[in-house]
């Protein structure tokens, strides 16, 4: 019997040693993976810097400090759960010039990219479409050219896409309609062409849509009547034709509707179902008929601009 207990004790010790060894190996593997991923983030950031000129402010001078961890570099933030992974790159209004490196797509934990109000040129890297954690992408007020990458439709967590005030051309990618969580889409003040994709009516979470100051053509999609969360719709100074879709009267959350300086014709719909509408601008079109009496019943309406029509 004594031999049995000795054998049992030895077996328990052996199992404990094996379990400890496995845990140690797993921890070592995780640590090695973390070091590798951290090195990847650092390399991606340095690759970004290599294509950017930060004169005259030297905004990225701290990025040359080998003793300073990249999570403490200017404009870089890292996460709490993954303390060595970059989660935000905020370098707005620093007069940065140059190109956006495709290596930014290697920042696989990034949630925020704000490079707005700089002097960046070149195209938007197609590789950014691989950033599945990205929620906020602001590249507005630069000199970016080329087309909007269709791959951005793969950024499934995107909440805000701001490409306002660049030199982008081509058509609006229909793939953007996959962004079911998108709340703000600003593509105004570019040189976009073609028609507005009907599929944008699938953006059920959208609050703000601005497409003004482009060279768009065709009619406004009736599918916009499905954007039930929409609060602001701005399509001014484009070449839209056709009529104002009656489906827009379903947008009960709308407070701003701006369709100024297009080639719209037909009558003004009865917007009686828009209790929060405070700003309505349909001026400088080819609208005809009478001004709906129902507009006088909109208790929130403060600005009504209908001049230069028929």
UniProtKB/TrEMBL annotation:
Domain Leucine-rich repeat-containing N-terminal plant-type residues, every copy: 39-78
Location in or out of the cell: Membrane
Gene3D superfamilies listed in its UniProt record: Ribonuclease Inhibitor
UniProt superkingdom: Eukaryota
InterPro entries: Leu-rich_rpt, LRR_dom_sf, LRR_N_plant-typ, LRR_R13L4/SHOC2-like
Residue ranges of every copy of the Disease resistance R13L4/SHOC-2-like LRR domain listed in the record: 102-239
Keyword Nucleotidyltransferase set for record: no
Signal peptide: 1-20
Transmembrane segments: none
Keywords carried by this UniProt record: Glycoprotein, Leucine-rich repeat, Membrane, Repeat, Signal, Transmembrane, Transmembrane helix
Membrane topology classification: Single-pass membrane protein
Gene Ontology CC: membrane
Protein name: Receptor kinase-like protein Xa21
Species: Ananas comosus
């Amino acid at each position: 019997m004594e031999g049995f207990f000795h054998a049992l004790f030895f077996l328990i010790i052996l199992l404990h040693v094996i379990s400890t060894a496995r845990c140690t190996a797993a921890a070592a593997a995780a640590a090695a993976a973390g070091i590798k991923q951290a090195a990847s983030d650092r390399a991606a950031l340095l690759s970004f810097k290599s294509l950017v000129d930060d004169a005259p402010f030297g905004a990225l001078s701290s990025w040359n400090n080998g003793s300073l961890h990249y999570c403490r570099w200017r404009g870089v933030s890292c996460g709490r759960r993954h303390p060595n992974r970059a989660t935000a790159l905020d370098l707005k209004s620093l007069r940065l010039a140059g190109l956006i490196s495709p290596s930014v797509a290697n920042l696989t934990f990034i949630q925020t990219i704000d490079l707005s109000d700089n002097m960046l040129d070149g195209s938007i890297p197609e590789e950014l479409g691989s950033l599945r954690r990205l929620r906020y992408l602001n590249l507005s007020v630069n000199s970016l050219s080329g087309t909007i990458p269709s791959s951005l439709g793969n950024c499934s967590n995107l909440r805000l896409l701001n490409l306002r005030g660049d030199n982008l051309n081509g058509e609006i990618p229909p793939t953007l309609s996959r962004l079911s969580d998108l709340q703000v889409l600003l593509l105004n003040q570019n040189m976009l062409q073609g028609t507005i994709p009907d599929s944008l009516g699938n953006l059920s979470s959208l609050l703000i849509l601005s497409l003004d100051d482009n060279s768009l053509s065709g009619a406004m999609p009736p599918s916009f009547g499905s954007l039930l969360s929409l609060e602001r719709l701005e399509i001014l100074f484009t070449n839209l034709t056709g009529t104002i879709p009656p489906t827009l009267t379903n947008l009960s959350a709308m407070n701003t509707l701006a369709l100024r300086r297009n080639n719209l014709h037909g009558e003004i719909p009865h917007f009686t179902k828009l209790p929060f509408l405070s700003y309505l601008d349909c001026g400088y079109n080819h609208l005809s008929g009478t001004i709906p009496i129902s507009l006088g019943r909109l208790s929130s309406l403060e600005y009504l601009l209908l001049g230069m029509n028929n």
